[in-house]
Here is the input.
Amino acid sequence: MQSKKLTIDIDNVVLRIADASNLLKSNNVLQLRSWGFQHCKTRQSYEVQSVELNKILPKVIDHLNKKQIPFELTDSSEQLLSIFYDRKKVFEKIKDRAENFKDGNFVLSDFKDYVNLLEKNVIRKLKEHQIKASYHHYILGNNANFSVPGSGKTTTVLANYHLLKREGKVNVLFVIGPPACFGPWKKEFKETLGYSAKVKTLSGDSKSKRRFAYLLSEAKDTELFLISYHAACNDRIEIGEFFKRDDIQPMLVVDEAHYLKQIGGNWAEAILSFAQHAKFRCVLTGTPMPKSYTDMFNLFEFLWPGQNIIDNESKILIQNYEKEKNTDSAKAILRDRISPLFYRVRKKELGLREPNFLPPIIIPMKEYERLIYDAILTRIRHYSKEDYLQNINIVDKLRRGRIIRLRQCISYVPLLLTAVENYEEHLLEGGFEILNVIKGYDRLERPGKCDHLINLLRGLKKKKQKVVIWANFVKTLKMLRTEIEKEGIECDLIYGNTPITPSCEDSDVITREAIINKFLDKNSGLDVLIANPAACAESISLHKSCHNAIYYDLSYNCAQYLQSLDRIHRVGGSEKITANYYFLQYKDTIDSDIKNNLESKAQKMRDFIEEDYSVYSLDLFEEGDEDSEAYKRIFG
Here is the structure.
């Protein structure tokens, strides 16, 4: 007599569901196929081969129970399920302890013991908010730190890594992040733990050279690995094998983890594939939900592979609520699933001095700047009347391009000779005299903003204060360096082409890290750093030596603006010293619209950032969209 139950068996890496009585209907079969099951006619069964059966089996059991389909387990499947539920119990216990700590319910003696461990073993004295974040990390083992930029997230990770290493649980810190974070990780390692780690940077080299680095027997003596997202994606197999080595016990950290947001993206899939082999995992980002609550899904799958933190049913509900703009319901589901598993320090908890935003310095344009700006403005107003004849997609590109041209004009006139991507409109067509003025501009005058900038720098130099100058166009950066050096003021610049690490061919090249280190040295003589927010607004800290920022020009990108503000307003210096911000603006130009628009968006984003479950982002306001919106505001 045939069994009226399904039989679930595990044979090595094969999960087999025997269905002799045809209990599985089409909708159930579809669900099994979504998990990778294939039908085997000879055995009248559905089978899947995977090294992750511990993830698949609980899903199958839950599904069958919900559908009230009877089944029986063989000894092998019973054993695997038992292991899964045992781990689940341990996880729930850890989760409850972490939640209680966030709620203020914890054993004081345990916390004091942890603080004593930090004081005895970690050179750097942690701030109160860092100690709390670090202890929460220690409780969980795998942790998400969503604290605001400048709060010291790197320090809390390093403190935990050191304690876990002391306990013999880890021996390698493997950090994935944008190349701009490599220098800070090396610097913070020494300043937090008191010694320099042996470091291997895995970015920029060929894959064969990187592969060799994983295979070296002495790789276990390298304590800090730094790798870019791009390289980690390409090296997914090698990293997985490296993590499996008996002599390697890695703590895997994903810095600026909002880059993992895209579900099904290449970077996310690659990192998720080897994350399960790490002993401990951590994600760091001040912007956990860049555009959607769904951006949380990958982060917690990375942290807790197999635990199904946000189950499929919850994911579907969250997505549906977002489509309906029912954010309260989406927040409620998310809060229930992830609240104990992350820690967040808000800006107001850092104890920093309020920054000093000085009123914009309004500057009249010089003769040729005004001539060219007004000529472009006139042509744009004329063209805007004809826009209705164009396709809307073409109009958007034209609007964006026109705003960029105006921004170039208020930054540095010769920029108008450069191409703008997806924009070929000739705003100076027929104006040969004006075109000649642009080509020979440097012989005619120095920009009015540049004159005021030099005066500001002279005053700050007399006070022996360092300053960072922010501008958005590379040609402007280079012009400013030339003009500042003419005044006998030592300066340097960082932009996208500034090397992050020296190449094998040119090991003498001056890197971004070397420039920043020299700038931070109070006795170096390098008192002025020129940079653009696109390349330098993320992952660097200037606050220990620099407390002045001058904005030569601005873009509509609020993300980069906020990031740049935080470079000189951070924990470890801004508690006692005020950060000063200066803004140079041309009179009767779009400078005022850019500044007003940025401040409006910045305040909204600051309000969002103080909440745990708001959707806010470093790339929520994309520059292309904002340029087009600016055009509509200005020209109607």
The chain is about 45% helix and 15% strand.
